[in-house]
Amino acid sequence: MPYFPKFMVISNPRPLPLTSHLFLTGVISRAQPLRQSAHGFLNRCPITDSAVRRGSPKQTWQRAGAAHRAKVAVNLKGCHISTVDMLSLTIREVSSALREGRISPTELCRKCLNRIKKTQHLNAYITVTEELALKQAQEAETRLLQGAPRGPLDGIPFAVKDNFCTENIKTTCASRMLKDYTPPYNATVVQKLLDQGAVLMGKTNMDEFAMGSGSIDGAFGPVRNPWSYAAPYREQTEAAPDSDWVVTGGSSGGSAAAVASLTSYLALGSDTGGSTRNPGALCGVVALKPTYGLLSRHGLIPLVNSMDVPGIMTRSVGDAATVLGILQGLDVRDSTTVPAPSSPTELPEDFDVKNICVGIPKEYHAPGLSEETVVQWSRVADMFERAGARVEQVSLPHTQHSIVCYHVLCHAEVASNMARFDGLEYGHRSAVDSSTAAMYASTRHEGFNDVVRGRILSGNYFLLKQNYEHYVEKAQKVRRLIADDFKRVFSSGVDVLLTPTTLTDAARYSDFTQEDNRTRSAQEDIFTQPVNMAGLPAVSVPTALSRQGLPIGLQLIGPALQDKKLLSVAQWMEQRVGFPSINDYGDSSESRNNNGMTKREQTSAV
Amino acid sequence: MPRLTPTPSYSPAHRFASQRLQTPWLLFNIVFSSGNVSACPQVLNKRCVDAAVMTGLALSCTINRMSLFDRKHYFYADLPAGYQITQQRRPIAVDGTLTYCFLGGKKRSQVIRKTVNIKQIQLEQDSGKSLHDDLRSQTLIDLNRAGVGLMELVMEPDMSCGEEAAAAVRELQLILQALGTCQGNMSEGQLRVDANVSVHKPGEPLGIRAEVKNINSVRYLARAIDYEIQRQIDILQRGGTVQNETRAYDSKSGETVPMRDKEGLQDYRFMPEPNLPPLIVYEDNASLPTGIDACQAVVVETIRKVLPELPSVKRDRLVQTYGILPEHSFTLVNEDGLVDYFEAVLKVTKMGPRKVIGWVIKELLGHLKQQDMSVSQSPISPSALAELLELQETGHISSSVAGQVFQEMWKSSGKTALQIVQELDLGLVSDTAQLHSICQKVVDSNPDEVRVNAIRNGNKKVLNKLMGLVQKETKGRADPVLVRAILQEKTLLKSDC
Asked: How far apart are CA A12 and CA A293, in angstroms?
């Protein structure tokens, strides 16, 4: 027994480990639900709703998406499905194909492995577990042939961000520090998927130790957004794919790229400040950040313990709900987990939004928010309103402080969590051995990139006795206020909040690297990170393609432990926005010239 | 102050040659799982919390209904996570007392009772153990105990000499052993004591303290403290000032020496432990919130109910119930299992407790100590000893023979006292005729004594001498009451002639 069986969660299950010192100054006014006319709350919306709905290129793509689904449905009735069609299905669809024997798990696994090879230029994977995947697929096949599949995930290929421990499989956190680290156990969430018979394809690329929002700051080079190679972007921008590719967002960029490029049906990410939702939005996949504590963090190499949650990336909201149902619940190895609410999993197909109230936080009209994103935000809000939902402007006044507050808390915990990497017990150890102190210093200098070292430095500064009260304690108080903002809004009758996920669509790598990691993180996390502060569930739903031909996602935020209801609303939205599949544009992402681009690039950051 | 040593000596010249383990060892920890690379969420072990609450109750502490965990950071290879989980802001128990006694006075037979206040009891993770190899200039790290749970007790500066501190720690040891929360062996590091020592003149505030580490027995604790007190007094008398420093006790020289301390001032950068939510303990089962399993929760009342008899209560009970001397009660309680042994003997013998205590302390404990054995290893069981004492009590053997039989029983365990008595023919000679002839022989061969006795009309001294001669003749087996009567008869008769 690696752990003593008699553990207890002695405390109350409050998901927010905030200090009890409340910052009580200032009177928080109640949310003032304003009954608005159709788009009145989006005052700054420069493009009228009707203009969006008529004739822009993205509308064509959305229709193409709808047509594609129909085509698949027809194809499934027949016997032949092209490789890419099969790969672009949702879990639910491919799962029934497996059960009906239209494809075997090993066949499916091989197709995914082939696709991984063809899309190697994306640099989505750090480790591909080909042999293990085929073995697992074979086992799934046996079960399916015996008519005894373990569940909806049996035989389904999945990918895992490289900061989740995987037994006997390298887990690097995209860092030199853990370049050769092989854990002896599986993270709880990984184990749960394996127990369901899901087939692990590999470990995905990321920002080093999940610190970043571009998936460009890892020791194994940047991840490329699959949409960089899809027809819409290439036609619209006439971009040269090898120089003008766009980033995936981060830090779970590899996982998002894996799902978007059709090499895995499901990927695990981690979400500390938006690291799952951000790349999910930029890569056009569904990205769920569950309520803090609903999924075990055991085996997830920590970034910020009080904010980290395993994230779920899929191609449909329904799939995310299925996976959530499997992963959620109490884990005796994680004291911060809470029992799952009454078994949800399957979402109602005919969810009625008539009785729900959708809040639009006015503070999310942030500087830098693209016009196109505002248009989509407005379009979906209208959709809800037309369907009979109440749509109200709400206020989250402390959101503006979230970024600064996050920086202090994140860096403080990073400084603490990274202290274990001293070169002694595991991971990189410097050859310098003139003294212990020198060995520590050079190990950590060689092992961590600038971003990690910078956060360790500032985090330790915040934690110094003389600074703790001014920084960490104050940030915890502000964190409480941010959480209270949400609580107040949700207790005033709002069911979900609708916000953008990111400011804009994905940036070109060349543009993205103009700013440093810190600035980028501050900009990119602005809509996603307050949710982590409050421990709430949120999901990014792919909504439309931008004029450039890149995905735009919108975020829905729900009250704590209302993940199922949140997903029900998200599915309603998904069914109506008509986001296209990357597959609609042919197999462009693998037909490119591979010359010189398949080998991993070393990022300048290391 | 019994507590973990958090900062071992530090030598920058030492390289770490720790064996790299293939697998993270800390998956197997007793209290917290942490320190491996993912290391994230830790889980508290209920047994440790139970132990801390139990110890807190035994020391009359206030048990905090909610306590918190914190991270204390420092870089040292014996701390694999780079921080120690401790309870800095709100420990599990506070404000207790420890009453201890020791024998003082001129004859060292006067029981002196004192009390030291317990500031707090906190739960912590243990660190690893550093072993410095100066020859090879290497430091080896033993991580077997890293992450294991420990209790730190902080005592107030209420003790004034080594003897008091030693007695207090000894009492604490006994309490912990009685509770079963710690075996308390200092030489094996199960109980570690760091002594903070300062001196001051009466009426003045406490002086600057020095901390003494590396003390691995109660005896050394007393010596280390007394040495340190004298050292500080000497410094002050010479007009110097005491340094606030960490010193190590060298048991060979009996001195304290400065430890190579870490460079510069440590800022432990405390922060709340994010993976352990506040620890809540409940007063009784009625106060448990619905949905919480009583087996999973820590309930103070439940623990209070199973508190065993504490050493001080046990001593008072022994003195009152059996009328034994207070110093004997100390001896009984200090030796693990001896009280039970004593009481087991009493149950099956008619011999009075004050006689039995002599046997248990003098003979049994004497023999055990001589051979460095524990009570549980004794070759003579309580019932076997009782049988022997019963033989003496009922007049089957004399007290001197009883001693002889005890020796035999110790050597050849398994044989009963009766068997030995029979085999060696040690039974009391009560045959009047036989005794008469032996006495006659003694009387005849000692005419002088007999005469004196006759003159003085029953001289006790002479009678005892004659009795001794009879016992010598019978190898101590003669029934003394009968012999006395016969001798008296014979000597007095003689004088009548």
From this structure: 12
DSSP tag of A501: S
Residue A241 CA to residue A370 CA, distance in Å, equals 23
Could you tell me which residue, B493 or A351, shows the higher pLDDT?
A351
Predicted complex ipTM: 0.83
Q: Is the four-CA dihedral A485, A490, A494, A499 of positive or negative sign? A: positive
Measured distance CA(A127)–CA(A567) in Å, rounded: 31
Across B297-312, average pLDDT: 93
Residues making up chain A, counted from first to last: 606
What is residue B12's DSSP assignment?
Answer: T
> What was the pLDDT predicted at A21?
27
Give the pair of three-digit tokens for residue B105. Answer: 């006075």
Nearest to B37 among A298, A301, A437 (CB): A301
For B334-361, what is the mean pLDDT? 90
Calculate how close chain A gets to B3, using CA atoms only, in Å.
Answer: 23
pLDDT of residue A13: 29
Which residues from B are below 8 Å from A9, CB to CB? 277, 296
| Average pLDDT of every residue of chain B | 82
Q: Which of A192-206, A249-263, B323-337 has the lowest mean pLDDT?
A: B323-337
pTM of the model: 0.80
- Is the previous residue joined to A591 through a cis bond, with omega within 30 degrees of 0? no
CB atoms A14 and B277 under 8 Å: yes
Cα distances from A570 to residues A65, A347, A558, A567, B282, in angstroms, run 18, 10, 10, 5, 42
**Predicted confidence band of residue A345 (pLDDT cuts 50, 70, 90):** low
Nearest to B130 by CA among B30, B11, B37: B11
Would the pLDDT of B32 be above 60?
no
pLDDT > 90 in chain B, percent: 41
**pLDDT tens across A84-123, in order?**
688 999 999 999 999 999 999 999 999 999 999 999 999 9
Residue A372 — very low, low, confident or very high, per pLDDT cuts 50/70/90?
very high
Spatial contact of B484 and B467, defined as CB atoms under 8 Å apart: yes
Catalytic residues of A: 161, 251, 275
Highest mean pLDDT among A440-454, B30-44, B169-183, B432-446: A440-454
Which residues of chain B have a CB within 8 Å of the CB of A306?
Answer: 274
- Nearest residue to A283 via CA among A317, A318, A248, A243: A248
Specify whether the CB–CB gap between A234 and A549 falls below 8 A. yes
Q: Which of A1, A3, A4 to mutate to test the interface with B (most CBs of B within 10 A)?
A: A4
Of A218-227, A490-499, B375-384, B391-400, where does mean pLDDT reach its minimum? B391-400
3-state helix, strand, coil in chain B (%, to 5): 40, 20, 40
Per DSSP, what are the bridge partners of residue B210? B197
Structure tokens at B266: 């440590």
HEC profile of A95-160: HHHHHCCCCCHHHHHHHHHHHHHHCHHHCCEEEECHHHHHHHHHHHHHHHHCCCCCCCCCCCEEEE
- Per 3-state DSSP, chain A is made up of helix, strand and coil in percentages (nearest 5) of 45, 15, 45
Distance CA B31, CA B34 (A): 9
Q: How many Å lie between the alpha carbon of B287 and the closest alpha carbon of chain A?
A: 13
**How many CB atoms lie under 10 A from the CB of residue A547?**
15
Cross-chain residue pair A298–B41, CB shorter than 8 Å: yes
CB A532 within 8 A of CB A210: no
State yes or no: pLDDT of B478 exceeds 50.
yes
A11 to chain B, closest Cα gap in Å:
5
Residue A281: CB partners within 8 Å, gap ≥ 6? A249, A287, A501, A502, A540, A542, A551, A552, A553, A554, A555
In one-letter notation, the amino acid at residue B268 is Y
